[in-house]
Amino acid sequence: MTTTIQAPEDIVNLALSRIGFKGRIGSLYDGSAASKKSLDIYGQTRDELIRDGNWEFAERIVAGNLLKQAPASGYAVTPWSAASNPDLPWLFSYSYPSDCIDVRSIRATPMFVPNFDPQHNVFSLGNDTGSNPPQRVILCNVPNALITYAGRVTDPTTFDPGFVEALAAALGRRLAPGLVGLDAAKLEISDEQAENQLAQQEKG
Amino acid sequence: MYLPTDIANLALDAIGAETVLGDIEDGVREAQVCLRSYRECLVQLLRGAHWQFARKQAPLTLLGDATGQTPNVGTAVTRPWLYVYAYPTDCAAVRYIPHHEIPVSQIANSIALPTTPLMTGLAAPAGRFQKLRPARFLVALNTDYPPETGQITWEVQGVSPQGRTVILTNVPQAEAVYTSVVLYPSVWDPLFRAAMVAYLASAIALPLAKDKKMGMALRRDQIAIVKAKVEQARISDGNETWSSSDIQVDWMQFRNYGSANMRSLMGGDQWGDGFWGGWQSVQFADGSAF
Question: Strand B163-169 relative to strand B83-86: parallel, antiparallel, unpaired?
Answer without folding.
Answer: antiparallel
